[in-house]
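Sharing a chain and its predicted structure for anyone who wants a worked example. Both blocks are below, sequence first, tokens second.
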Amino acid sequence: MSKRFIGAPLVALALLASSANAQHVGTSFGILVGGNFSDLKGNDVVSANIGTRTGLVAGVSLNVHLVGGWGLEPEILYSQQGASINSSNVSAEGTIAFDYIQVPLLARWTIPLHGKVRPFVVGGPSFGYQIGCSLEASGQGGSASESCDSIEGYERYRFDVSGVAGAGVAFAVGHQAFTVQGRYNYGFQDVQDGSDAKNRGFSLLGGFEFR
């Protein structure tokens, strides 16, 4: 089952690229790096005890430029997500840290403006596979970290499905472009078996695209 889940986004990526081949007007490759500001939402999440975890997001993209400012933008990203944990009952702070490999399959529309500054919007699904999960705590002069797999009764879901929506600006420099964008990630999959808690968060990304 896991092989089919991982393979599906890659097959979709190939199909998108091949279907656009007859009408695309250019292809570029991109590098993305930035920060995630993530937390957890759901009926089993006590919002007063959950805060933001700041993490890294970085990866590469394939940009298939179509007509009318439209394009396809599949990506492969390494993404640090999760949440910070605090409680007034104990004098300690903690973090639940998730590490994912994500494959967003995005549509992109660049607003048709003349000049070197080109605003754009992106949106689409994202498929993730969790490669790391840990609980970290610090307080009273000490710290500790433990893998989620070693915690009795904690059964994590490795797969994640989310929706992505965002906007940004591309600054053209010759045949290349620098990009700055913000995205919102809305998770649909619970992170733990038997618990209503899903990934949420914002991402701020800088990028470089080249043909």
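Comments welcome. Residues 6 and 13 are 12 Å apart (CA to CA).
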